[in-house]
Amino acid sequence: MTRIVPWSQSLLAEVLATGDLAVDLTAGAGRDTLFLWQQVAPSGSVVAFDVQEAALERTRLLLQAEGVPVFLHSYEDPGSFAKPGVHLIHDSHAQWLQYDFDSPRVVIANLGYLPDGDRSLVTQKDSTLRALTVALRHLRDQGRLAVVGYPGHEGGQEEVEAVGFLLSGLDPERWQVLHLRAANCPQAPLLWVAEKKAA
Ligand SMILES: C[S@@+](CC[C@H](N)C(=O)[O-])C[C@H]1O[C@@H](n2cnc3c(N)ncnc32)[C@H](O)[C@@H]1O
């Protein structure tokens, strides 16, 4: 019941359909990216960022094993996002605006570090806030942003507090914001889902 990632995925699946665009701000091992693709395939797209080359390679291998069309992008070679499939960007999610893709139906940010990857490449409060601010602005009406945060590692508590401050301050006329946490376990992962109401 308190497994937060399945909650995040099922709350996003409710608003996703074939042909939609979804953004994964942290590709990691590719599980969220693949999940999003399964909701929007075959005519939709997923754009997934990661600063860690090894993470993107894991994501690429996972996707290709499932027969998903994969396109690679980077700061030096931003390329086109026109084709359906998964577009992997080797860059920080804070650089979102450098890349020319449409407004997404959903955005997911599964923060922290990749458990069996490079733990120094952990998400950082300032770049997370920059990416979430862009995500909130660009999300389609009735689209959802899900953020999974981890207070247990160094810097994690500060990051989740900043995310909570940003999302709990959203105008209730325009946003519904859900917050889920294990009430008796302060170090457990947390989830926020923000839905943009129709204008
Ligand atoms: C918890 S993992 C993501 C898990 C992933 N969504 C999955 O399903 O496997 C966090 C990832 O964020 C990445 N990351 C850290 N800082 C980042 C940044 N500024 N921009 C994009 N990715 C970042 C890390 O390299 C790591 O792979």
TrEMBL record:
Any matching Pfam family: rRNA_methylase
Listed name of the protein: rRNA methyltransferase
